[in-house]
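Table 4 source record.
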Amino acid sequence: MKPRFFASLLVTTAISAVAAATAEEASPADVSPAQPVIPARSFNVKDFGAVGENASVPNTDAFKRAVEAVDKAGGGTLVVPAGTYFTGPFSLCSNLNFHLEAGAILLFSPDPEAYRGGGPKGFRPLIQISNAHDVLISGSGTLNGNGATWWPEALRFKAEANARHASSNTSPRPVMVAFTRCQRIRVEGLTLTNSPVFNLSQSACQDVTVEGITILNPADSPNTDGIDPKDCQRVLIAHCRIDTGDDCIALGGSGGTLEQDILVTDCTFLHGHGCSIGSGTASGLRNMIVRRCTFDGTETGVRFKSARGRGGLVENVVYEDLKMRDVGVAISVSSYYENTPIDSAMGRERPEPVAATTPRWRNITIRNVTAIDCRKNAGLIAGLPEMPVEAIALENVRIAAPKGLHVVNCRGITLRGVGIVAATGPDVIVDDSVQGLVRSK
């Protein structure tokens, strides 16, 4: 099949009209998660033996004693004053505000044996919160995960896994902060840096707020996702600055609870792979907005990623009012994550049977986007032959890139006010597999 250019595509306007109307009707609403309610009691971690004046003195037991005291009292605020507190892993309880004052640094042990037992692949998180409610982590302090001790082995593991085409190339490591099956949780103000792997994870949680935090990891630190809400409902991520070595934000679960009602707003993304949905989307996702965000130097801006065997239905998603500079790819919607070259995806393969884990994308709107100095290409929108991308609209999008936008296996696509300047080749390349493309000024 030969690609054809948008200028010749005055086809099936009714399909796109219906698709655009459907997307408009299904536009998600803003999100206001319920907030944690914390009792008025106050505790100081130093009263339980914590030492912040000597970075080699372990404070693990002091943190555990302090949290136990707050829990026994029925909740309250646990204050960590300025200082550097060397510690191993510990857990938080319900009805707790874990508050790091300015100048407070938690420096986590680099010893892998400190984290053995529990958690994914045998490592427990640095800070773990499970089956809890009304939890706030606040203040202007810093969590330092000592990740540099973990990354060399992780890079070696990744290289070997890629060489043998393994299904996973992520080595076992502890997550920095992990919420699991929690309700009414909030993280605000902190800096998270040098995480061994994911920085802030929420799994199967409801009413999640993350606001005004900073995440700093080297650009080459492996698998150091910024914020990962999985199988969560009612999630607000706002005013965060994320500079990391993998997805800045990654939604998408692997077969748990439907993810829905998510708002990401007024964030800045630097190094990293952008604001992503996937690669696991088997849980399904519905009703998400990404709004007023800046992407400066990320690998990707708008990113949807999944693959056969890892997919589910993702619908009613809006990315709007975005500014991008020096990104690799501005827009990527792909059902071929990490297992099929783009050339193979361009309408040349036979459809496979549809299964529950077939990726499905529908009712997606990307509007009011400006991307300058893209490093690779404007983007890719690639569904599967057995499951095309359905009802996708690009509105008021301006992109400057070395190459244009590829579109393949889509049904009902609208390009309204889209201007792409490609240094070489056409600005938009549309495969014969696309049905119902309409372009207007």
